[in-house]
Amino acid sequence: MLMRSSVLTAISVIIPAHNAAATIAATLASLRSEAEVIGEVLLVDDSSSDGTAEAALNAATQFSLPLRVLKSSCRDAGGSRNVALAQAQCSWIYLIDADDLHLEGGLRSMLVRAGGNRPPTW
Fold it and tell me: In what order do the strands lie in the sheet with 92-95?
């Protein structure tokens, strides 16, 4: 079982979001079953005007997820992902959109298939 304390064996989840207040709680809820392997969730709030950041913070608190909100004005998902990649602290990266749902067990399965939770050697 992985411990959240080690960024070397944890995953940075990156979520670009623009006006996603209506969907972000469901996305975060779909990640809660894998909270033990998630070292951080980086939500990039890309010029939202609907309370996306607040909705995400409330949901992350409810689901015990380590959320950081990063503000951007990229106006595209790729640019927002790059903002988060520059600040990610874990060895593994998982990208998910603010209106997607994560399949339970997927992160653990990826870590196991990647070689027993070892960080990449590039």
Answer: 67-72, 38-46, 11-17, 92-95
